[in-house]
Design goal:
5 helices; single chain; mainly alpha; two-stranded antiparallel sheet
Length: 120
Amino acid sequence: FKYCRAELLEENYFHAVFEATKGVAQRIRDLSGLGTDGGELVNTAFSTKAPILALSKLETDTEKSEQKGFANLLIGLFGAVRNPVAHAPKIYWPMSEQDALDILTLISFIHRKLDNAVKI
């Protein structure tokens, strides 16, 4: 809500989702100290070989798989939601209340995972 409260209160779902997705990237930058964006930011921050942020100890195949999957989820969020919203006018990219709620639920999950991420 830090990034999109005003837009939600106005029921401006298009911009609420846009601000919330930009907020995810900013949170990763804040946690990691990186200045990049999108896939480059995610791949650098959540690498399994030389991670800056880790969701776990990355000792088991399961922990490494979760790290990779989380990175893929983030890249998918940026590619499927943030980038189209950033490049398409609002009239060509309708955002229903239900779509916004689903996307914001995913973003909430991502923020909860980031709450427990450890900087290495």
